[in-house]
UniProtKB/TrEMBL annotation:
Pathway: Amino-acid biosynthesis; L-leucine biosynthesis; L-leucine from 3-methyl-2-oxobutanoate: step 1/4. This is 2-isopropylmalate synthase. One of its GO terms (biological process) is L-leucine biosynthetic process. Belongs to the alpha-IPM synthase/homocitrate synthase family. LeuA type 1 subfamily.
């Protein structure tokens, strides 16, 4: 069965870089953009060109070097923003302008002191103006998550008529439940005239830890683009994590939906972004965290040593991690100790293992983790004669 492809729109260099303390210089942005292109992302949101001369220059240089992906620049629904973005995107093989405006009651009233009709007019003017520079124009309805569906459908319809090729439905505040966000996509699919002319896009923030679930719900209900970042970095609690949505779709082939991502580069890309941004990846982060393929309890270790699939739904090699790891702690059992001892050169008989295990527990109660050098020491202090097999 041929699969539907969901476009991966990476916004690590725009929404991701908004994280306090994660500012990148131009060279770092270029290195990350090249890597994102190799990773297979379909669209790279390179920055917000009007926001600063540095961001303008970075978008311009990224537009020059990216070979495969579409390069996108963010704007507000403001003429000058659109002109500056168009200029910055000039060297791109495939340029996209991403323009939009807030559509929720809260944004219309408090941000714009405006009304619904005027917002639609501004949306249409922005898309039409962007269209005079590039063919590919994405429209975002900021705070779509809290915008009532009927009005959202009117805005989307007007944006499509003005020429929008992609409709971004951001859950800007990370408020929606997956069912609600999925239903929003379904509503737009069923109620927006001309919807077949545009791609619906999910852009979910993680304030309630639901960004990934919401993006997947959006895709199940008809969206064909996901906006996400490496390691899920972004404003406040972050954006949808790229590695999570990619692997969810790959691990659930019956959905019939996949991406163009080379998943074997995920771990390395995660490390690269973490390193350049100086932002550590939490150890329990799905897919790319240090503990994502580490097993430390005796029951799990015994299972994984017998057959990896007892406690792992993914092959670590598929995301670029060398191997699953068996971590030795005071919760580990004999199977794990025998396995790790063998890896460092000792084949233990059952009797020897019983003795060494008692010694191991004394060490393990004193320290958080037992490393390879400790294993040699433990075996020596067990006072038994063991031939090293190495
Ligand atoms: O979260 C959001 O609404 C955004 C838009 C500017 C696309 O980042
Ligand atoms: Zn955002």
């Amino acid at each position: 069965m041929s699969k539907d492809i969901v476009q991966i729109f990476d916004t690590t260099l725009r929404d991701g870089e908004q994280v306090p303390g994660c500012k990148l210089d131009k060279e770092e942005k270029l290195i990350i953009a090249e890597r994102l292109d190799d990773l297979g992302v379909d669209i790279i949101e390179a920055g917000f060109p009007i926001s600063s001369p540095g961001d303008y220059k970075a978008v311009f240089e990224i537009a020059k070097i990216v070979k495969n992906a579409t390069v996108c620049g963010l704007t507000r629904a403001v003429k000058k923003d659109i002109e500056v973005a168009a200029e910055a995107l000039k060297p791109a093989k495939r340029p996209r302008i991403h323009t939009g405006i807030g559509t929720s009651d809260s944004h219309i009233l408090h941000k714009f002191n405006s009304n619904k009709e005027a917002i639609i007019e501004r949306a249409v003017n922005a898309v039409s103006y962007a269209k005079t520079f590039v063919e590919d124009v994405e429209f975002y309805a900021e705070d779509a998550g809290r915008t009532d569906n009927e009005f959202l459908a009117r805005v989307c319809e007007a944006a499509i008529k003005a020429g929008a090729t992609v409709l971004n439905i951001p859950d800007t505040t990370g408020y929606c439940l997956p069912e609600e966000y999925g239903a929003k996509m379904k509503y737009l699919k069923e109620n927006v005239t001309g919807i077949h002319k545009a791609t619906l896009s999910c852009h979910c923030h993680n304030d309630l830890g639901l960004a990934t679930a919401n993006s997947i719900a959006g895709v199940i209900n008809g969206a064909r683009q996901i906006e996400c970042t490496i390691n899920g970095i972004g404003e406040r609690a972050g954006n949808t994590s790229l590695e999570e949505v990619v692997m969810i779709l790959r691990q659930h082939p019956y959905l019939g939906i996949d991406t163009n991502i080379n998943s074997k580069l995920l771990y390395d890309t995660s490390q690269m972004v973490s390193d350049k941004m100086g932002m550590l990846v939490q150890p329990n982060k799905a897919i790319v965290g240090a503990n994502a393929f580490a097993h430390s309890s005796g029951i799990h270790q015994d299972g994984v040593i017998k057959n990896r699939e007892t406690y792992e739904i993914m092959d670590p090699a598929d995301v670029g991690v060398n191997a699953s790891s068996i971590v030795l702690t005071a919760r580990s059992g004999r199977a794990a100790l025998a396995y790790r001892a063998k890896n460092v050169g000792y084949e233990l008989t059952k009797t020897q293992l019983d003795i060494v295990y008692q010694e191991f527990l004394k060490y393990a109660d004193r320290q958080k983790e037992i490393v390879d050098s400790d294993i040699h020491e433990i075996i020596e202090s067990s006072n038994i004669k063991i031939e090293s097999i190495s």
